[in-house]
Amino acid sequence: MSAAATTLLAGALSPGAAAADGPSRDTVLGNAAAVVADQAARLGLTSDQGTKARDVIVDADGTQHVRYDRTYRQLPVLGGDFMVHLTAAGDYRGSERATTRPLSLTSVEPSVPAPKAAGLATAALRLANVGETLRGLVAKPQLVVDALHGKPRLAWRTEATGKDSLGNPMARVVLTDAVTGREIDAWDSIETAAGDGRSLYAGTVPLQTTKSGSAYQLTDPTRGNTYTGDTQNKTDSCILILCYQRAAAPVLTDADNHWGTGADSNRASAAVDAQYGTDTTWDYYKKVHGRSGIAGDGKGSYNRVHYGSAYNNAFWDDGCFCMTYGDGDGTTFGPLVSLDVSGHEMSHGVTSKTAALTYSGEPGGLNEATSDIFGTLVEFYAANPSDPGDWRIGEKVVKSGFGRSALRYMDQPSKDGNSADCWTSSVGKLDVHYSSGVANHFAYLLAEGSGPKTVGGVAHNGTTCDGTKVTGIGKAKLGAIWYRALTVHMTSSTKYAGARTATLSAAKDLYGAGSAEYAAVGAAWSAVSVG
């Protein structure tokens, strides 16, 4: 199959509309529905289960891929997602499932009541933030079927949220066995990194804005009306997905359509970086992968800058479909609005709309690595002389008080003192920002190869775990393979072994099973001890 970009149909076509070079969304969904019904036994579907299409992709040759979520007796199934692959004629070609275990429960009535699950989750949030004074704690349990952690069982999925002493958001998802009350898993649910405008980090950049009366708004009508607003250092009165009373961020306006001064003292400067990051990330996904917007539906997200007080973080929130940037404390971090941070955080949104990799264990590491990979590729795509592409994450936002030159290093992840270079059976026990090192290391080796070299004016050295020499195939092919794997072959439960399989399948799709690219993917994974 050619490496040509695929056409995404999810949300991009009105019902019954036809793409210029392919079937309509309704046609693809109709084909998939017939295949799912015919292949129900193969997919583990029974009369107790329901399905809902999440994403639709049509390749240039007409091959169709539809991703589904699953319910059991009307309860969401964690790890129940699956994908069916169809020929151009709409016939069954293959499938992938997040779990292959039979899905059958004796009862969907919990022994543990919802208030107890809520209490256990808030206790877990406090334990994960020992020494921090938390206030405004809220927990909202949802009854689910957990098929991610062994034999399917009834569970409470509870998001516990609160604020720290500075009013910044804290959130943790806790998965509790609804029969025994034992904790199954837990993970942080804020996915972090960490006209023309004069930005803090990217120099003077072009901006598309909207004229409103005699002034201009920082709203881009050419990219789904993405806009940037200023929270005036306020925080959310309610936290993340539990309510929709987020800190207001009115769109920024300007009299002459020349935004910012390039200095922290001008509040528009950070907004320029945020809008530029959104624009560049939109363009990267659109022009390189054929994806129109984060959700693939042509709709823009929005940015909130100057969030909280000395907030040392940035995060993507699916609930508001928005990016939020802190100003940093000035000692450890500056405003967290650099290009690779923007690309990283918004790529969390892409992951949530496609493979939805669980933000825990090995899938969580792959989730974070996906954002590091695409955040880095966005930086290379921009080719901005003020911020040349390299394989470091967050190098523009760190200050001397941080103690090193970047958040993470993809050529040798362990240089940050925490991340894993090589896969081991215990890597899934690490924080997801550190277990991501294995995939980051793979990505660097696949693109650049092993050995010392200078990239973006910075010395890099791609080491290997098995002492082999790896020859890179370039950044463009890395991006094509990882995007294909994410959108067509990975599921919510994909671990490192599964990522190897998914990327090999993607390389086979794009370049052929006997290609140099296919061999390079296998060699790069072996070089980080996966396979």
Automatic annotation (TrEMBL):
Any GO molecular function: metal ion binding
Required co-factors: Zn(2+)
Keywords: Hydrolase, Metal-binding, Metalloprotease, Protease, Secreted, Signal, Zinc
Protein's organism: Streptomyces dioscori
InterPro entries, per database record: FTP_domain, Peptidase_M4, Peptidase_M4/M1_CTD_sf, Peptidase_M4_C_domain, Peptidase_M4_domain, Zinc_Metalloprotease_M4
Protein name as it appears in the record: Neutral metalloproteinase
Location within or outside the cell: Secreted
Domain (Peptidase M4 C-terminal) ranges: 355-530
Top class in the EC scheme: hydrolase
Domain FTP span(s) in chain numbering: 52-91
Signal peptide as annotated in the record: 1-19
